[in-house]
Write a structure and sequence with these properties.
14 strands, five-stranded parallel β-sheet, elongated, Helicase, Ruva Protein, domain 3, 468 residues, alpha/beta
Length: 468
């Protein structure tokens, strides 16, 4: 069974053949390229690969040029670089330019096989998500709703079904999670899309003005009512009205909303004649309406009327794997708005953003991105430029992405670099620990302890190492 298609680009025959055999033994379909020029020619011939593994330092056309050619030919193809310690900084820059990861020489076959497996899994996941999003978004055009997480894909799925109905919808979720975006998607992809979409934040209206704003009033209904006024419900005729923060409506307003949902009729304040309105209600709240019903703040019968179909939007804390996509989305929009040149967030800054708790959810993330881009003068934005609370940066030492199998952040740790440095030195000096300890600047006792800690095997047992 073939697990994926890999191109190995290496100008040293022995290493290239060794890698081709190793990948082929794992069930991959593998091709080799003896130079960067050869690799680019294969890409120009419209060959599609899941993964390209390329040496960074090659004659004429190096790994960076191969990376650029790969991303031009097929942006979803992942690239893993093979590099020596002296060019790690270049490899890190390559990751910022779109490479998946890098491995340092010398390495074991198992090390690069593990990285390759994760890279191909990531591409497969991205391809699947792109397909699912294409099915939903191309059909329903849910503009501004960004996310690859299972939670958001489920939201999109339910929303797509709701668009085809006339049912009343209740959208719940914390402030800043995008409830209005969902309401807009429902309206603009429904049969009412040619009608008006009217939004009202009920929590922003004083109780004595709620009825007048929603249902209108007649001249003389109260002091200051010098002429008839059409309410928002009538403005939403043949369309959709979003009642944001519906839990903040007054008891008298709730009675009138209930009547509309039962009979489709409203009565302007001070009027004695009912007006029929054909409008769909989408209600939204960040409040627990069940508790509001229990406390008597919200009518039980109205709750049952609006809670026909519920769509719950997860907080950003519950969908952290969407943060890199959201950052990319907002960055593109903000750069266009501010007329700024190319900007990118470093791996560390992305991790800091992923670790932050985001009490303000997506709205807060958007504001942080805009503020950071506005104030930063650097092309690569580092973590210390983010306007986040100082204590949040302690989270940089842990990666929550690992807990949810988020494979976008594969980082070579300091321990791994130390281990690889010891192995490289042992190989170079034939296992002479005294010489190795001198070169590394540590005592022989410390070296022995680290060999034991990292379970480094004797030279004759690590003959599968690839050296160049």
């Amino acid at each position: 069974m073939e697990n994926g298609k890999i191109l190995v680009v290496e100008d040293q025959d022995a290493m290239r053949e060794s890698l081709v055999i190793a990948f082929r033994d794992e069930g991959y379909h593998v091709e080799g390229a003896a130079s960067g020029e050869d690799a680019i020619q294969k890409l120009d011939n419209h060959n599609i690969y899941d993964l390209v593994v390329t040496d960074l330092k090659m004659k004429k056309v190096d790994g960076l040029e191969v990376l650029k050619a790969v991303k031009t030919a097929n942006p979803s193809t992942e690239v893993v670089l093979i590099t020596a310690y002296g060019t790690i900084s270049t490899a890190v820059q390559a990751i910022r330019d779109g490479a998946y990861d890098y491995v340092t020489k010398p390495f074991r076959h198992q090390e690069i096989l593990k990285v390759a497996k994760k890279a191909i899994e990531k591409k497969s996941l991205k391809d699947r998500v792109r397909y699912l999003e294409g099915e939903v978004r191309d059909k329903y055009k849910f503009e501004g709703i960004v996310g690859n997480s299972n939670a958001m894909l489920e939201v999109l799925k339910v929303t797509s079904h709701v668009c085809r109905t006339e049912s009343t919808v209740l959208v719940t979720g914390e402030s800043g999670t995008g409830k209005e975006l969902i309401a807009r998607a429902i309206h603009y992809n429904s049969l009412r899309k040619d009608g008006p979409f009217v939004v009202i934040n009920c929590g922003a209206l004083p109780e004595n003005l709620q009825e007048s704003e929603l249902f209108g009033h007649v001249k003389g209904a109260f002091t200051g009512a010098i002429k008839d006024k059409m309410g928002l419900f009538q403005q939403a005729q043949k369309g959709t009205i979003l009642l944001d923060e519906i839990g903040e409506t007054s008891p008298s307003t709730q009675v009138k909303l209930l009547r509309f949902l039962q009979d489709g009729e409203i009565r302007p304040v001070g009027g004695n004649r009912a007006v029929y309105v054909e409008a769909r209600i989408v209600a939204a709240t960040n409040e627990n309406l069940e508790k509001a019903v229990e406390s008597g703040k919200f009518r039980k019968d109205l709750f049952y009327r609006i809670n026909v179909i519920r769509i719950h939007l997860p907080s950003l804390r519950e969908r952290r794997e969407d943060i890199p996509l959201l950052v990319e989305y907002f960055l593109e929009k903000i750069l266009e708005k501010l007329k700024k040149g190319k900007r990118a967030f470093s791996k560390e800054s992305i991790r800091a953003l992923a670790n932050y708790s985001w009490p303000g959810n997506i709205r807060e993330l958007q504001n942080v991105i805009e503020r950071t881009v506005t104030l930063s003068k650097n092309e690569i934005i580092n973590a210390d430029e983010l306007p986040l609370p100082i204590e949040e940066f302690a989270a940089l030492h842990s990666d929550p992405m690992d807990n949810q199998k988020r494979k976008s952040f594969i980082v070579t740790t300091l321990a791994e670099q130390e281990k690889n440095a010891i192995i490289e030195a042992l190989n170079k000096y034939g296992g002479n620990q005294t010489k190795v300890s001198q070169v590394l600047g540590i005592s022989t006792t410390t070296l022995w302890r680290k060999i034991k800690k990292y379970r480094i095997k004797p030279q004759h047992e690590i003959s599968d190492k690839i050296d160049k």
